[in-house]
Write a structure and sequence with these properties.
about 20% strand; alpha/beta; single chain; 7-stranded mixed β-sheet; about 270 residues
């Protein structure tokens, strides 16, 4: 794939998903496109791109998207923010439970489910049955969502789970580890494109949105568009958790930084 072909495909990916690949990602994209072209019997890039654009089933596009959007993650990643949630944010929610009702969290860009289940473990430990709660977990990649629904992970994925939680919420399955049904029941997985305005408008009533290390793959325009949708999806005073290297202040003025002992998060 030459530079011009890369730019044509990049524009298509961006228009459909909001994901923007910088020039230095040419090799990353090229390798995955080559695999898809071989799988579908194409030797000419222009013919492949044309088929991709006009494939009414959407299967070729989804398969390419799945190959491009596999993001490595693991349980209890970026621990300080999770500690902030557990020790500082959840106690506030519990104190307001009588007027707030159930607690709803959204894990946006959940990949293969490690973060969503981490949040479920924390909620189970800190809230339990005292207040109704649930977690919506979404991703654009159908393959990682299928893995998330199975809830089975390698040693690498669970290596940072605190021992007390590991013994309580995981069972050994061969060389892997399965998440306990006691937390899986609280997490609902679904496919969602963050650039799909109609679908995004259906996401509403959340106390917090976790979208960590996802918007780094978007350009400024797409980040602002997603931030606007997050604002609409949150309850008043709801929170957005971004990755450590991300800042909502550089994306949108809709949210104010909220400084806690363990982390800075962003509040509606």
């Amino acid at each position: 794939m030459n530079r011009t072909e890369f730019e044509r495909l990049r524009e298509h990916i961006y228009r459909e998903s909001g994901i923007y690949y910088e020039d230095n990602k040419l090799y990353y994209v090229e390798k995955r496109v080559d695999q898809q072209m071989e799988k579908h019997g194409f030797s000419d890039f222009t013919a492949y791109l044309g088929a991709l654009r006009f494939d009414r089933t959407g299967r070729m596009w989804q398969e390419l998207l799945n190959s491009l959007t596999v993001n490595e993650t693991y349980f209890f990643r970026e621990y300080d923010q999770l500690k902030c949630l557990a020790e500082e944010v959840i106690p506030m929610w519990k104190a307001e439970a009588a007027e707030r009702g159930r607690i709803r969290l959204w894990c946006a860009g959940c990949s293969s489910g490690e973060e969503a289940y981490t949040l479920a473990i924390i909620m189970q430990e800190m809230v339990g049955e005292e207040v109704q709660w649930e977690i919506e977990a979404t991703d654009i990649n159908t393959e990682v969502l299928a893995r998330a629904k199975k809830g089975i992970y390698s040693h690498y994925a669970v290596r940072q789970v605190p021992d007390v939680y590991f013994k309580k919420y995981f069972t050994t399955v061969g060389e892997n580890y399965a998440v306990s049904p006691s937390v899986r029941k609280y997490v609902k997985f679904a496919q969602l494109n963050l650039m799909d305005d109609a679908a995004m408008r259906n996401m509403k009533g959340f106390q917090a949105i976790f979208c960590r290390n996802v918007l780094i793959y978007f350009d400024d325009f797409s980040r602002r568009r997603v931030a606007m949708q997050f604002y609409q999806a949150l309850e008043p005073k709801g929170y957005v958790f971004l990755g450590h290297s991300e800042s909502m202040s550089r994306i949108s003025t809709l949210f104010k930084p909220a400084r806690f002992r363990n982390a800075i998060i962003y509040q509606k």
